[in-house]
Structures are given as structure tokens and as C-alpha cells.
Write a structure and sequence with these properties.
The complex is a heterodimer of chains A (188) and B (408).
Chain A (H helix, E strand, L loop, with lengths): L19 H26 L5 H5 L3 E4 L8 E6 L2 E7 L2 H8 L23 E5 L22 E4 L6 E3 L4 E3 L11 E5 L2 E4 L1
Antiparallel strand pairs in A: 1-9, 2-3, 3-4, 5-6, 6-7, 8-9
Chain B lengths: L10 H12 L2 H9 L4 E3 L8 H20 L9 H10 L4 H29 L7 H23 L4 H12 L8 H9 L6 H30 L16 E3 H26 L29 H9 L3 H21 L11 H22 L4 H28 L9 H6 L2
Antiparallel strand pairs in B: 1-2
Helix pairs in contact in B: 3-5, 3-9, 3-10, 4-5, 5-6, 5-10, 6-7, 6-9, 6-12, 11-12, 11-13, 11-14, 12-14, 13-14
Classes of the chains: A alpha+beta (188), B mainly alpha (408).
The structure holds protoporphyrin IX containing FE and FE2/S2 (inorganic) cluster.
The site of protoporphyrin IX containing FE has 25 residues of chain B, from α3, α5, α6 and α9.
Chain lengths: 188, 408
Amino acid sequence: MANTAPAHSMHGDGADGDTRRDFLLHMTIATGVVGTAMMVWPLVDSMNPAADTLSLSTIEFSIAGLKEGQDITVVWRGKPVFVRYRTPEELKSAQDVDVKDLRDPQTDASRVKKGHDAILIVVGVCTHLGCIPLGQKATDPRGEFGGWFCPCHGSQYDASGRIRKGPAPANLEVPPYTFVNDTTVRIG
Amino acid sequence: MATASTAQKSTWRKIYEWHESRLPIVTYLDHVVGTKYPAPRNLNYFWNFGFIAGFMLLVMILTGVFLAMNYTPHVTLAFDSVERIMRDVNYGWLMRYLHMNGASFFFIAVYIHIFRGLYYGSYKAPREVLWWIGVLLLLAMMATAFMGYVLPWGQMSFWGATVITNLFSALPVVGKSIVTLLWGGFSVDNPTLNRFFALHFLLPFVIVGLIVLHIWALHLPGSNNPLGIEATPADKVPFHPYYTIKDTFGVGAFLLVYFAVVFWAPNMLGDADNYIPANPLVTPAHIVPEWYFLPFYAILRAIPNKLIGVLAMFGSILVLFVLPWLDTSRIRSATFRPVYRVLFWVFVADCALLTWCGAQLPEGLPLVLGRVGAAWYFFHMLILMPVVGWLETPKPLPASISQSVTGG
Ligand code: HEM
Ligand code: FES
């Protein structure tokens, strides 16, 4: 075809790969790659939690009515949060564990707030694959360690919410929370 | 053809040729699935299942589009909108039962199709890329079916989605962020349902695209056959009418079974718990996936370590990508491989065992059997495939397909 431009390698003034056309080509490719990357990120990030979803992430509740040995479940970010007022025996069993023996070593003290040692607050989601462990109701099985028992694949947690047996890799997560006053807790 | 003069042609013929000279679509299809595509003359009924799978995809797209006209992807409305489809929408029950059971029958067809390939060595050179695209199709189908099952927003929908998305949290460092990204929140919730609906709508069309590539890759070497030897031109017949008629017959037989289930036992393959609306605060006592995921679920649960369990589960499918190189035998068909032939059936039994284990609670005997089954799965793929290929003495191959019949 007489009217088409000569083939790229036969054109230009410099050595191989050093023509103005090569330069333009490389600039175009680079711009294209950067531009594509700049477009991909908004697409991906649009799938992350939106602002309104994030704004739902603080709750406040009262534990005034909670008695020793009782549990309540509150909902935070669409997940249950277990609040347990532990009995002295439960507390002692949680504190007496040798941390070295644990899969996810954490002391009981590091999982509660100072001065509120008996109140354990953990996210009630099994760290294996996300089922809700049993143990909030008096009639529920609590496993061999007196905490919670996950029915899905049999993970067992102790009275500090620490993983003791089964496939779960980590302790029940302690959410970020503060005691607003002695009977009010804010999570988030 | 060009022998007839213009004057003798019918008006229809002229219109056809006018159009064909501008967009030769009939000629093209004739080359792809018609008289110009030669196929080996000895294909048996196991070769029907590719066509059947393609047919089921069309059924899924058709019923799916009409379901989507009445379905609402919102956590407060999804369950009720599906119940409305079942009770109030004209023939809504039919659309839903066809779609629900269609997924199962789609998997039945594809699994038979895959085992056909394993038995007759269809993954071996020169069909490796064809096989790869097949594995991609399987993965895309699994993703589609998983997200579809979430849409009715019953208890199994919700907890299935929770457990499966949480699989990714096993990945070190990035795991948690990936799960949050998948959810669009801090648990499976409305954003999750919304995006799953969008992707469930999209992926079947990606599957259509992959099928085009699958057929394309098939047409260079042509179909394998039960003897696994090269088919000479003399041993081939045109796809149309020989295999179009055979495939149509096969689809008919398959549909009889499919419709029998749709009309007489539409919930046989489902889980009753999915007729309970999703409750994010109560996990059902026994979470089971749909039957077609059970073997993989059994492999996941066989391993007491989260990360390794997840890797093994994905690995059980990904290993298929390298199967063409793990199998060191150059003989394709198991007909001529006395040892592999036995191992193939053991492998089928192993998959059946894993399916059973996946449906049981993971304790006691099912757990032990699940571990044995999972170990055998990988032992078969990673050890037996190469070793048997080296050590086995194959039976003599016939010189051609016709020679295997005439003996001469
Ligand atoms: C590869 C093809 C497909 C597969 C394997 C598949 C699979 C599934 C499954 C397993 C369900 C859950 C059924 C139930 O338990 O109710 C489902 C639901 C649904 N699918 Fe699909 N699907 C496919 C294609 C499509 C397409 C193309 C559309 C739309 C264009 C669609 C729209 C829907 C809708 C609206 C629902 C919710 C209604 C319901 O639950 O019955 N599907 N799908
Ligand atoms: S989700 Fe709790 S043990 Fe698997």
C-alpha cells in the first residue's frame, strides 16, 4: 500500500529504539498505564465501607442492670458484642491461665479495662470463619473452658474470650471501647 | 452454490446471499458447529455434556433475567421479594425452581464433563489451554452460584456468605482489608447483598465469553475421542447433522431428569434453613453449602489450621491448572492405561466420599474420613499422577479409529 506510512523500524533518525516516535510511544504508554491505575483505584475503593456505613460505628449502652454471672449482647457494626459480668470464679480461672500455653497469648488484664476487671467485652464473632459462638444464654453450651463454643467448626473460647481449642487462630476481638462513667460504655 | 444462475434462485435465497455477503454469520456458524466442523466418528455419550452445560447456561440466563425483574436486592426486602415471586408472580414459582435447580443440574453436567476429560486425558497436549479455560469456567460458575445463593437472603444465604467471605481473612497481612472490601462494611450486610446481585448478573455473561474462548481453543486440535488417538480425516464426520442430532437427543434426556426434579422435588437439593429469613445474630446449628461445594468444604474442614485449610481448599481446584504436566503419561485414554483406569475410579469414589463428609458435622467418623479423603485427593493429583505415568505399561494403541473397530 503506497499511501501507508513506512514501517516504524525503517523510519526515524537515531539508532534503534531512540527515535522521537519511540519517545512519543513510550510517553503514551506511560500516560495510559498511570491513567488506568488512577481510574482503577476509585473503582476498587468504592467497594470499601461508605461514609454512612462508617458513621454507624459508635454506640453507647448501659450496664447498670447487668448482674454478676449475666451476659448481654449488643449490636455494633452489624455484629453482636458480648458483654459478660464474670463471677469471681470465672475471673480467677481466666487470670490463672499460663499465658505461654495459649495459641494467641494475651493476659486477662490486657483484655479488660482497669477497675472493671469483671466486665469482659468482646466481639461475638468467631475468629475462624465468622459464626456467632454459643454461650450467651444460660442454656447454651460454653465448651470445656467456660467461655463460648462455636457450633460451626467447634472452636472453644475461655472466660476471657481466648481461643483454647479448635480451628480458630485468634482470641475473640476486644472492640475499642471506653467507660463513659461507671455504668455506661461507648464502643467505637 | 455458484452453479445455479441468479434467475433460478428463490427470493429467499437471494435475500440470504445478499445478507451473507455482508455478514457471513451462517457460514461462520457452519464452520463452528455445522457441516464444516469435522468431529471424530467414535464420540460416546460422555461427549454430550459440554453441549448440555451450554444449554443449561442459557436456561440460567433466561430464567435469571425474568427473576431479576421481580427481585429486590435489599436486606429488608430480598427475602419477601423471593416469596412474592413464589406466591404472587405469574409462573414465578416456575422461574425460581427452574433457576434454583438449574444451578444444580448445570453443575451435574459440568462435573460429568470434567470427569470425562480426566478419564480420556482430554487435558493433555495439545489441549492444555482448552483445559485451563475449562478450569476458569468452573471457578466463574462457582462464584456465580455462590453469589446467587446469597440473594434470597435466608439463613443459609447469610451464613454461607459470612463463612465464605471470611475465608479470605486467613490471608496474612491483607486478609482483613480484603474481607472489609468484599463486604463494603463490617459484616455481611446490605452493601454486600447489592454488589453480589450486580456481580451475579454480570458473571454469567463473562462465562459466555469464556465459552467462546473454550470453543475456539477446541477447534484448533478438534475434539479428543474415547480412544485418545489422533483422528484422521477419514475417521471424522461433520458435526452437523451427526452430533447436532446426538446432542439434541442428549439434552432431551437430561431435561427429563431436570424437569422431574423441578416439578416433583424442587426443594430436594436445597436446605430448609434457607426458608428462614437471615438473622445476623443467630448462626444455624449446622451450616452446609450447596451440594456442589461439599467436597471442597470437606477439604477445608479436614485441616485444623485456618490458613492451610483455606489454601488446601483453593489448591484442590488450582491443582487442575497444572494437571497436564503432573500427568506424565503420553497416552490419553484410560482405556489403554490399566493402572490409571483403576485409580480414576478410586478418585471418583474419593470425591463422592468428600461430598458426603462435607454434609456431616465435622467430628468423629466423618472428620476422620474427610481427612483421609482430602489426603487422597492430593496424593492422587500430586504423587500418583506423575509416578503412575512413569511406571505404568500401557496397552498397545490401535493404529486408527477404524482399525479399532474392524481389527484390520
Ligand atoms: C451461571 C449461571 C447462573 C448460576 C449458576 C446461578 C445460580 C443461582 C443460584 C444458586 C441462586 C439461588 C437460588 C435460590 O436458592 O433461590 C440464584 C438466584 C438468583 N439468580 Fe442466578 N444464576 C445464574 C445466572 C443468573 C443470571 C444471568 C441472572 C440475571 C440476569 C440471575 C438472577 C438471579 C436472581 C434475581 C436470583 C434471586 C432469586 C432466587 O433466589 O431465586 N442468575 N442464582
Ligand atoms: S466459624 Fe467458629 S469454628 Fe469455624
